[in-house]
TrEMBL record, chain A:
This is Uncharacterized protein. It comes from Loigolactobacillus jiayinensis.
TrEMBL record, chain B:
PROSITE patterns: PTS_EIIC_TYPE_3. It comes from the Bacteria. It is found in: Cell membrane. InterPro entries: PTS_EIIC (IPR003352), PTS_EIIC_3 (IPR004501), PTS_IIC_cello (IPR004796), PTS_Sugar-EIIC/EIIB (IPR051088). Keywords: Cell membrane, Membrane, Sugar transport, Transmembrane, Transmembrane helix, Transport. NCBIfam families: lacE. Residues 8-441 form the PTS EIIC type-3 domain. This is Permease IIC component. The phosphoenolpyruvate-dependent sugar phosphotransferase system (PTS), a major carbohydrate active -transport system, catalyzes the phosphorylation of incoming sugar substrates concomitant with their translocation across the cell membrane. It is a multi-pass membrane protein. It comes from Loigolactobacillus jiayinensis. The chain crosses the membrane at residues 31-52, 78-99, 111-129, 165-187, 207-228, 248-271, 278-295, 315-336, 371-391, 425-444.
């Protein structure tokens, strides 16, 4: 499980990552807790998956200005 | 809170997104960031010379200064190749990043804007003497490239390195480089280029593709600078410096501008928008330019031209990161009875010392946390006010050395002000103020159930 601490644009983030399927990496929204968005991923390397998720969001026109973090759930 | 978030997403985020996705602004921000190796190397050289020359000279340690002369000389060389020519360096990074944003060959873009910048700088001089020079002196001048005609000495190819290549040239580089860069990009995008067969190596093909757009860009700027200088007798760089750069930087020195920027950044951060990213072009083009002018003035032993610069925000308003969250962490250690907050504080204190505050911002969290919205915005506002007037009343020296933003508090201000002990004292005063502002809200948060906040 990876967590995205993202206070705004949560719907867009969920939609983006749910639809993400590149280089064999995919995400599935699991649940929300406050500003935390929890996603499952098909990757065993969760740290890399978190980086991929962050890069995907940052690549979007609306994502470049967001202040958020992507991390591995403990 | 949900209603507020929806309102933000509908009205504020699109504006921030628009600002944050303007390619010119991104290029401008990245162009300044690209100069960082040069600005930091130059700052280190200025700082070392402060230790080895300026401060010992104040104490009359002439023997030490003399012994250190070779090291001072090396530092001066480093400064000459970096900060002293930061306008020239920026002229290249600006075109490079602008071209990169528009997916055209960036190297040519950088070359175009660099050449443009040099066109804006006066390169001739004429001196009228009161009496003719002796033959020996005339011979020396002629050998160095000048022409002597009776009492008149003229020269060509003499750039005024001291007056134009430093921070004073930044706005000219931005404006004329922007125009030249736009011409280069538009013509390249419209395929007004020399096309080579596919068998030609890419490096050669790219260079050929840039020939026509670059020539047009340079000729347009060449005509502008020539006509301007011919008509006014003034180099365009001097005119831009006098009529645009100096007045704009003077505006940035007002309390209103400093306060407005501080509030905007805080509000953006609190609502999950990258404040310094969105406002980076303003911060860098205005206050970083002022800072670079100060560092260069310090290196030359001149009076510092500006009181408030880019690093002042980091040092006095954002101790431990935006919102001065380091002070919140200390307040949590002292007052918090909540295990969750104390755990986050323990994890966040080490990065916080280096002004990295993501663990605090998202761990507590502060972002969108109604408990901390007031101190998160209020603390920097009060702190920036105290620092602004302390510096304006000359109680603390202005910044004269550039510091990287990850330099820990107290050390950063001490070094940035060329070892003015009053700067860390001012930071300490601000730290106490910020701590006092945060404390009641930490105490209030003791009464809240963390589960309900989530």
């Amino acid at each position: 499980m990876i967590i995205l601490d993202a206070p705004i644009q949560q719907d867009k983030i969920i939609a983006l990552l749910n639809a993400y399927d590149q280089d064999g990496v995919s995400f599935q929204f699991d649940h929300k807790k406050g500003i935390q968005l929890h996603f499952t991923t098909n990757q065993s390397d969760l740290a890399t998956a978190a980086k991929v998720a962050k890069a995907a969001i940052k690549a979007e026109p609306w994502g470049g200005v967001l202040y958020f973090q992507a991390r591995v759930a403990k | 809170m949900n209603g507020l978030i929806q309102w933000l997403e509908k009205h504020v985020v699109p504006i921030a997104t628009k600002i944050g996705s303007v390619r010119w602004l991104i290029a401008l921000r990245d162009a300044f960031i690209s100069t960082m190796p040069a600005t930091m190397a130059g700052s280190v050289a200025v700082l070392l010379n402060a230790f080895l020359r300026d401060i010992p000279t104040q104490y009359g340690w002439t023997g030490f200064v003399k012994a250190m002369q070779p090291v001072v000389g090396v530092n001066s060389q480093v400064w000459t190749g970096t900060l002293a020519v930061i306008g020239l360096i920026f002229a290249f990074t600006w075109g490079y990043n602008l071209a990169k944003q528009y997916d055209v060959e960036p190297l040519t873009g950088g070359i175009v804007t660099l050449g443009t910048f040099l066109m804006s700088v006066s390169q001739t001089f004429t001196i009228t003497l009161t009496k003719a020079l002796p033959k020996a002196a005339e011979k020396i001048l002629t050998a160095s490239g000048a022409a002597v005609d009776g009492k008149t000495v003229t020269g060509w190819g003499y750039f005024n390195f001291n007056a134009h290549f430093g921070a004073a040239g930044l706005f000219t580089a931005m404006i004329l480089g922007g125009l030249a860069g736009a011409i280069y990009i538009i013509l390249t995008k419209r395929n007004i280029t020399i096309k080579m067969p596919e068998s030609v190596p890419p490096a050669i093909s790219k260079a050929f593709a840039g020939i026509i757009p670059a020539i047009v860009a340079w000729y347009v700027i060449g005509i502008i600078t020539y006509v301007f200088t011919d008509a006014t007798g003034t180099a365009i760089i001097d005119w831009i410096g006098k009529t645009i750069q100096t007045p704009l930087l003077s505006l940035s020195q007002g309390y209103g501008a400093v306060l407005l920027l501080t509030i905007l950044v805080q509000v953006f951060w609190f609502f999950g928008i990258h404040g310094t990213n969105v406002l980076g072009p303003v911060l860098d083009s205005i206050w970083l330019t002022a800072q670079l002018a100060n560092v260069n003035a310090a290196a030359k032993g001149d009076a510092l031209p500006y009181l408030w610069t880019r690093s002042d925000f980091d040092m006095y308003a954002w101790l431990g990161g935006a919102g001065s969250t380091l002070l919140l962490l200390i307040a949590i250690f002292v007052f918090s009875r909540r295990d969750d907050e104390r755990t986050v504080a323990k994890l966040a204190i080490a990065p916080g010392i280096f002004n990295i505050n993501e663990p605090t911002m998202f761990g507590l969290p502060i972002v969108l946390n109604p408990i901390y919205v007031i101190p998160f915005i209020l603390a920097p506002v009060v702190m920036v006010t105290v620092a602004y007037f302390a510096i304006n009343w000359h109680l603390v020296a202005p910044v004269s050395i550039q510091m990287t933003w990850v330099m820990p508090p107290f050390l950063n201000s001490f070094l940035a002000t060329s070892l003015d002990w009053r700067a860390p004292v001012l930071q300490l005063v601000n730290a106490v103020i910020g701590f006092i502002i945060y404390a009641p809200f930490v105490i209030a948060s003791n009464k809240l159930d963390p589960e309900k906040l989530a």
